[in-house]
């Protein structure tokens, strides 16, 4: 069974994330969207809320699960018997950052994990959770950039 983990903060999930999820669904038997929870990090939305937003956005995909982890991404993936890590690429800065992480994860997992990258669809590459949070904090129209499940 081909299992992929899509790790991220998803604070909150955006239409950019959703684009990657929707396009990855047919590529794998199972896709686990996993929130990496870091106790040192400050989030806008608590873990439960971030999970609820994602769950409601992906409820119609039978092969998608939503989960969270607090350990290393590689350890979580191996625990779940996943062979793939899914990441989205928006721009060259994402690529440089993701390249180092993908090589590191492959080394740590002794070659048992491959990172698969999907390029963001045009028109979605400017969206980030950070921009959405900024719009939300100024009462702007964040609804244009997130799935309908995300409401404050
Ligand atoms: P992280 O803190 O791990 O970067 P994010 O929730 O910001 O978590 O992002 C998770 C993944 O989603 C990353 O691979 C990121 O590149 C991707 N991503 C974020 N926004 C977009 C977007 N607009 N289009 C495509 N991929 C995106």
Question: How would you characterize this protein structure?
Answer:
The chain has 152 residues and is of the alpha/beta class. It contains five helices and five strands. The protein has a single domain, classed as 3-Layer(aba) Sandwich (Rossmann fold), CATH 3.40.50.620. It has helices at 15-24, 47-58, 73-79, 92-108, 129-137, and strands at 3-8, 30-36, 64-69, 84-89, 114-119. Strands 3-2-1-4-5 form a five-stranded parallel beta sheet, with helices on both faces. The longest helix is centred in the middle third of the chain and has 17 residues, at 92-108. The model has no long low-confidence stretch (mean pLDDT 97). It binds adenosine-5'-diphosphate (ADP). Residues 8-10, 14, 16-17, 19-20, 87-88, 90, 94, 120, 124-125, 127-129 line the site of adenosine-5'-diphosphate (ADP).
CATH topology: Rossmann fold
Please tell me how large the radius of gyration is: 15 Å
Instruction: Describe the main β-sheet briefly.
Output: 5 strands, parallel
Give the helix tally: 5
Secondary-structure element series: EHEHEHEHEH
Strand content: 15-25%
Mean pLDDT: 97
Shape: globular
Helix-strand makeup class:
alpha/beta
Kindly state the percentage of residues in helix: 25-40%
CATH superfamily: HUPs
Question: What ligands can be seen in this structure?
Answer: adenosine-5'-diphosphate
Q: What's the total number of strands?
A: 5
Q: Given this structure, which CATH class is correct?
A: Alpha Beta
Task: Give the low-confidence spans.
Answer: none
Strand adjacency order, main sheet: 3-2-1-4-5
Q: What's the CATH architecture name?
A: 3-Layer(aba) Sandwich
How many individual domains?
1
Distance between the termini: 37 Å
């Amino acid at each position: 069974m081909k299992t992929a983990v899509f790790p991220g903060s998803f604070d909150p999930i955006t239409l950019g994330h959703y684009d990657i999820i929707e396009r990855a669904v047919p590529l794998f038997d199972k896709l686990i969207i996993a929130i990496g929870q870091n106790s040192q990090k400050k989030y806008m939305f608590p873990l439960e809320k971030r999970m609820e937003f994602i769950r409601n956005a992906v409820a119609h995909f039978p092969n998608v699960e939503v989960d969270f982890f607090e350990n290393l991404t590689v350890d979580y993936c191996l625990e779940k018997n996943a062979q793939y890590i899914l990441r989205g690429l928006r721009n060259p800065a994402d690529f440089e950052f993701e390249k180092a992480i993908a090589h590191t994860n492959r080394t740590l997992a002794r070659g048992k994990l491959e990172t698969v990258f999907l390029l963001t669809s045009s028109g979605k590459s400017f969206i980030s959770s950070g921009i959405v949070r900024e719009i939300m904090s100024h009462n702007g129209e964040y609804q244009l950039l997130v799935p309908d499940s995300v409401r404050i």
